[in-house]
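Re-running the complex after MR caught last week's input typo. The corrected sequence lines follow. Everything else is unchanged.
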Amino acid sequence: MGRVSSLMTVGRRSMMNSQTGLHTVGHNIANKETEGYSRQRTETYSNGAEGGGKRRIGLGARAATVRRINNPYLERQLGNEKSELATAQGRQQGLGRLEQIYNEQTVEGFNASMTSFFNAFRELSTNPESMPRRTAVRAAGETLVNDFHNIHSQLEEVGKDVNSQLQISVHDINSMTEEIASLNKQVQEVEISGGWANDERDRRDLLLKKLGEEVDIKWSEGEDSTVTVSTAKDALLVVGGEANHLEAVSTPAREGKGEGDYDIVFYHHDYAEPLVLTDRIQGGRLGGLLSVRSGELNGLKHDMDNLAYTIASEVNGMHAQGFNAYNQTGVNFFEPLNGANGAAQYLSMNQDIKVDSGRISAGRDPNRPGDNRVAVEIAELQYGKPVFDGSLTLDEFYNGIVGELGIKTQAANRKAEVQKNVVDQLSNLRESISGVSLDEEAAKMIEMQKHFDAAARLIRTADEILETVINIKRY
Amino acid sequence: MRVADKMNHRQVVSNLNKNRHQLSTFQNQAALQKRITKPSDDPLGAARVLEARTEIQGFEQFEKNILSTKGFVEFSEQSLGELGDLLIRAKELAIQQASDGAAGAETRKMVAMEVDQIFGQMVNIGNRKFGDRYLFGGYKTTKAPFDMKGNYYGDDAEIEVPVDKDAKMVMNIPGSHVFMGKKLNDPVGTTKEIDPSLKEDNSPAEKAPELRQPASTMFAPVVEDPSVNDQGYWGPKSVNVFTTIKTLETGLKTNDKAVIQNSLDFLDDALNQVNLARAELGSRMSVLNTGLETIQKLQVDSKMIQSEIEDVDMYELVNNLNRTQNQLEASLATSGKMIQNSLLDFLR
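Corrected-run output:
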């Protein structure tokens, strides 16, 4: 038979247990909106019985552990999908900006000014004696040159934007790896003594996901409860309680990037030289942005240079053979370019023509004011003569650029949308397991309160029994 | 399935976002009246729209080119018509004066004065301008192609103007052909070397009938170019119109019946030559008119294509707008209910 005092102890413990439970409910409610938080549960165990034979009486319950409810496999999968979503969004963002540069669906753009340029020569061919028509050719030429410059500087602008995003991102990455390293230490300290570092692990999981959204990372958890994080194949960002830093630095031009554009480098005492990671980063937002920079942005710059150089050299070639209003020959229409490299940036009209449009050549023979053959020939460049490896006309070349960019942007948009759905579904699944439900917590709260009431009642009952026992003698 | 509060919130927010995004897309389309507002909306369509726009812009230019070419050709044709009338008048006079029955030395002298005037009018026609360009000077459009003696200072060039993507039209008939009788039947589009005899430092004066010799032997208005006579564009015989008139005038002045009679043949040839040139201009006019019609039709076609690709279908759009609007309202209504309710509301 149990003692009355032990009945009190059971009641007291029970009250304490329900208070622990209420605390956990409170913690859950408080963290309902905390990002990455996993709901927690108090686990109670029943205490061993005392007494012997067939009358072993249980001694109540004790709260053993508070544990988070979480599926690590799902968390990792969610992290991977989020990283891919970030890659897709990085591409979407970069391509969206590029697309705007080439968007002339609702306004007049480069295509229109190129056509106007050749139309101006066509107009000149109907009346090569006319000064106003020459001036119109000059104006159309200047518009074309300006459009080349505009597109070039807008492309440069996108490159600069990528640079500043790299800087911000690297800064974020460094502060996240620092925090992960310090969380590693905390988790280790808590868990070495057999406890569960629930909140620290939640935070660490969240940071790993966020880090994965910036760059593609690989991570694994060791037996000492710390995670090791690496990126771009073998750059170790976090080992135990130590974090290694990345840096964004401006470097000279090379294949895939322009002069002064940023590279991401990794400093580590194992390597004598800092490691350039730029081309090895494949995923995360940075991976998306970098792939747009080294792929589409670079390609577009190259295409525009090629286009500018081809127009300049073809037009010059014809123009220089002609004779202008002053019977001069050998006059270039555009200032000659050294090569295709940077042509879109350096393209400019011949200074003499800028001053006097009479220096524009229309005819092929001297002293023939009505001779329009050179003007006709130049106008025919637009769609008459294939110029790029003999396969594409200027028009086809440019429209091809816009079409291809459109297709790539569309693909990136779709990819981002699909990936967003995947992430949404996984996130829902994750919330379904680890998320806080107020209804549930409210029910739990009432349950705990009733539990507390009942335990208190138990103590009162014990007290009454004791009183009865004490007062036996009086009756 | 266990439903956590965040799931509800996420679902509500993401659905509302989806509805609102759709709504704003449709609204944008309605405002711009365009289905494609950026290349990625429909990359192939966007590229085709660009093509169509280039075509339309090109057609607009070709239309202008045709109209200005037409003006030039029309005026040339009209001028040659007047030239033909003058030649007919000269021929009438020559027929009158060719026989001794109706004419004598005195009348011939008087008629010679009229023929001289005709000569002057012909030179004026040769120096006609369209705008500020001489019609009959070839490429030399800024200087008068003929002097008062009928010497030619222009060149042989035919000015070709682009009138379609792959078509050009000759705008002028150089004076060297229609007045001076030099043949012109090179295929269109080839570059013609300018006849060295027509370069300005070569004085054409040697052909001028100035010397007083027996006129019948001296004046041979037929251009001495065997290729012209054999296979010439202007018919079997090409003649210098001015020399022909001058011959008639000289015949009249010198009262030389043989020369007058002789010049009748040349006048016929000259008339023939001018008429052939008019016919050529007339056929160019009809080609230009057909070309203009074609281009205007193609312009409409291209605009149709462009519109079909990029313009929004208003019925469909309004329909979509309404549907999305309804969806949004439904989302809002259900969201409001879903977010508000909690067990806590019922615990009292």
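None of the earlier attempt is carried over here. Chain B touches chain A through 65 residues (CB under 8 Å). The first helix of chain B runs from residue 5 to 32.
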